[in-house]
Amino acid sequence: MHIEQLGWNQQLSEVFTPYKEQGFSIGRVSLEHKRMYRVLTEKGELLAEISGKFRFESNSREDYPAVGDWVVLSTREEEGKATIHHVLPRFSKFSRKVAGNQTEEQIVATNVNTVFLVNALNNDFNVRRLERYLLMSWESGANPVIILSKADLCEDVEKRVKEVESVALGVPIHVVSVKEQTGLDALQAYFHNETVALLGSSGAGKSTLTNQLLGLEKQVVQEIRTDDDKGKHTTTHRELIVLPTGGVIIDTPGMRELQLWEADSSMSHSFQDIEEIAQHCRFRDCSHSGEPGCAIQTAIESGELDEKRYQSYVKLQKELAYLERKTEIRAQLAEKEKWKKITKSVRHRR
Ligand SMILES: Nc1nc2c(ncn2[C@@H]2O[C@H](COP(=O)(O)OP(=O)(O)OP(=O)(O)O)[C@@H](O)[C@H]2O)c(=O)[nH]1
Ligand SMILES: [Mg+2]
Ligand SMILES: [Zn+2]
Q1: Which CATH architecture has domain 93-251?
Q2: Which of residues 222 and 342 earns the better pLDDT score?
Q3: From ligand 3's centre to the CA of 328, what distance in Å?
Q4: In terms of CB atoms within 10 Å, which end of the chain has fewer, N or C?
């Protein structure tokens, strides 16, 4: 296999040069086990662990390898093993807040060129959820593409497409059905030795689409629940899979909880329409909750702005502000922890 087929390119090659000169090899993380990583290299698959030095120098989850990362390796090919010494800088990173109450970042995938936001055209269809996914995509550095799957189950596709267009200005939308084999050819254009990650709720058809693009039944697929069209969380690991035609696909588990992780600039990107309207409010610090001359209220009343979309905007903003406060406290704690480590090591050396 050629390394280019895994998504390797000129820029990465330049970053890697100094390591190469020292005799290191390169690989890409395809799967994350508890403490081990499956890494794809030009010479095949290896099982890798991080070096002791790496562990010592890492302060947060973000420093550790994640699926999609390019890693600097020393290899023991006869044993099928390797050691990870560094992670090359990421050109994109898709994160969310880990489920539950902790304020911790979970890296879903890195070095993704395009993210397919998969939404089924059945009763699970949800524009508000899509808004969230779009926001995360803009923040990640990857280009979002909306996939409306299971078109065979939808009576009025046009209506759905219009709804999606209204929240996703300028984002490509593809209507597909694996069952009826429609709309699929157009997706090939996103691969060309690049990386595509599939995101969307459980049961949306991500693994079905992966198998389709791969040309074989690699990923396990399961029927959804019949009462509410929700999936059964069939895929449990994020995994990077190489396509025979070059390029890679990252299949991910449908998320139970999609909480945001820092999304400031992207908030404006996704809600440009609302922020533009808000510029016409009489007061610059208008809270849009009853002040005279509020353009937002006027736009909602006239129907120009969908009230639900506005509510969703307000909710997302609150969530971000909350997260920011919590993260600050965490950062302070992490800093303390780091210094503890350093002082300890200095003592040790003495
Ligand atoms: N009618 C129809 N069903 C489909 C289509 N694509 C997928 N499905 C069905 O949807 C169900 C769920 O598909 P999966 O591919 O397992 O969904 P997933 O997004 O990978 O779900 P998780 O792994 O749980 O996140 C399966 O029963 C598929 O057969 C389609 O185009 N049309
Ligand atoms: Mg799946
Ligand atoms: Zn206002």
Answers
A1: 3-Layer(aba) Sandwich (3.40)
A2: 222
A3: 29
A4: C
